[in-house]
Specification:
The complex is a heterodimer of chains A (about 170) and B (about 300). Chain A is mostly helical and about 170 residues long. In chain A, about 75% of the residues lie in helices and about 0% in strands. The radius of gyration of chain A is 15 Å and the shape is globular. The chains are: A mainly alpha (about 170), B alpha+beta (about 300).
């Protein structure tokens, strides 16, 4: 895992999130690219390093959100750990499974973020709109996962071969 | 044994991450200065990258809006055409209307732009996340003198307040957020109250604190429909910034308080340029001179001597 490569991927992702997906939205909902990085980090880097990478992605996203610093970081780290802790035999190197996991992981990240936000006093995060956001963002992230996954594989490759290859061996 | 230790390590790491996040959350919620400064620094460092990306990718956003927001654009065009027709029809009375408007402005004394030092900024982007629909980013920051809490206006009136300030950019907390309370004055009655936007009721504002319902609902004590609502001198903003006009008046559930529904003077959804009033975002309630507290009353002869 190269810190420089990860930094490049993070900066490129936040730049795209802050430019393209301010306008490109479905029913007013943008994909959660940083949450996607977090889920992929759990999937590709495992339970030891995945949550650390996810925490860093969440922290970067927190810097641009009006909610308190650390809210996305804590959520993303837990989601990445949960994804990584799933039974290793479950993984197959199939784009469909990657997309499904990314969608469900994003759904969990969005709901977890809103629930934790309410716990720390942020108002208006938990309502029906939250579910709509979680579902649409999950679907969008599932669609984007095959495009973003190679970037994360590249950033994580040197020290940590991705798990699907390890499982295949 | 070694295997169990290896299996436990990820959990320990996660616990450490959670504790770190809780520490950051606590510091941020308690307004720990260096945490804000650090965030601002990162945003400033990444600002050139995000600006470049916005320039490079703007055609994608434009194309998306052109395809998927076509109906909205058509509706806006129709509304604009209707307005142009109305303006043509009213051209004869325009001069008189203009004079009336000027007299109204003079009567209401709304000098909010003339008297205040201002900075004009363009809107860089709207909300970036999915839960921050009432925030936008502008291209001016602390280098231009902006500070947190300053009022943000357009020619039509108040739109919000400056929230986070970085070197080159700042975020604006919009009036459309029901969590942003504003001290307002009802011009027709001179009553002062607190109001906020209502979730799910875009374009309107409810003044529901600080106003008393007159005994028997005497209409002479109620604000006139159509009268102006402006920021009060006791609010955190400069006084007399237009907020909107009264569209309905009623009593609260307790029959003791008054609730005033106000139509906002600004269209907050589609902003391109805004103006920031460079007045500090602090309470402007005139404070009485500080009187030193004493545990014992002053002797009578001393009081007489001072008074005499």
């Amino acid at each position: 895992m190269s810190a420089l490569k990860l930094t490049l991927v993070f900066v490129a992702t936040i730049a795209v999130q802050l430019s393209v997906f301010v306008d490109v939205r479905v029913s007013g909902v943008a994909p959660e690219l940083l949450a996607l990085l977090a889920v992929l980090a759990g999937f590709l880097a495992g339970p030891e390093r995945g949550p650390i990478v996810a925490f860093a992605a969440g922290l970067l996203w927190d810097i641009y959100l009006p909610t308190p610093l650390g809210l996305a970081a804590i959520t993303f780290a837990i989601v990445a750990f949960s994804v990584a802790s799933l039974e290793a035999g479950l993984y197959r190197d199939s784009p469909l499974q990657l997309a499904l996991l990314s969608g469900l992981g994003t759904l969990a990240a969005v709901i977890g973020y809103a629930l934790l936000g309410e716990v720390v006093g942020q108002r208006g995060l938990v309502d029906l709109r939250m579910l709509e956001i979680a579902v649409i963002a999950g679907l969008m992230n599932a669609a984007l996962a095959p495009l973003v996954a190679p970037l994360m594989r590249w950033a994580l490759r040197p020290e940590m071969p991705f798990r699907s290859s390890a499982a295949a061996q | 044994m070694a295997s169990a230790q290896r299996e436990g390590r990820p959990r320990h790491r996660l616990t450490l991450l959670v504790l770190t996040a809780i520490t950051l959350l606590t510091m941020d919620l308690r307004g720990f200065g260096p945490a804000d400064t650090g965030q601002g620094l990162v945003r400033d460092i990444l600002h050139p990258v995000t600006t470049l990306a916005a320039t490079l990718f703007s055609p994608i956003g434009d194309a998306w809006n052109a395809v998927f927001d076509y109906d909205d654009l058509e509706a806006q065009n129709n509304a604009l055409r209707a307005e142009i027709d109305a303006l043509r029809g009213g051209a004869i009375g325009a001069e008189a209307d203009s004079a009336t408007l000027q007299r109204l402005l003079n009567a209401l004394e709304l000098p909010f732009v003339e008297d205040a030092e201002t900075v004009t900024a363009s809107v860089v982007r709207g909300s970036v996340g999915n839960f921050d629909g009432h925030v936008l980013t502008i291209d001016k920051g602390s280098r231009q003198g902006l500070e947190s809490g300053m009022a943000v206006v357009t020619a039509a009136g108040l739109i919000g307040q400056v929230a986070e300030v970085d070197g080159a950019t700042a975020t604006v907390h919009l009036l459309s957020d029901s969590g942003l309370f504003v001290g307002v004055r009802l011009v027709s009655t001179d009553d002062v109250g607190l109001g906020h936007a209502v979730a799910g009721d875009a374009g309107f504002f409810l003044v529901d604190q600080g106003l008393n319902w007159p005994e028997g609902g005497d209409p002479t004590f109620l604000p006139e429909i159509g009268s102006a609502v402006v920021t009060s001198a006791a609010s955190r903003y400069p006084a007399d910034i237009p907020v909107g006009t009264v569209v309905a008046v009623g009593s609260g559930e307790d029959e003791l308080t008054m609730q005033v529904r106000v139509e906002l003077s600004n269209q907050i959804e589609d902003l391109h340029f805004v103006t920031i009033l460079l007045a500090e975002g602090v309470d402007q309630i005139p404070l009485d001179p500080v009187v030193p507290s004493t545990s014992a009353p002053r002797p009578v002869d001393e009081v007489e001597e001072v008074d005499g």
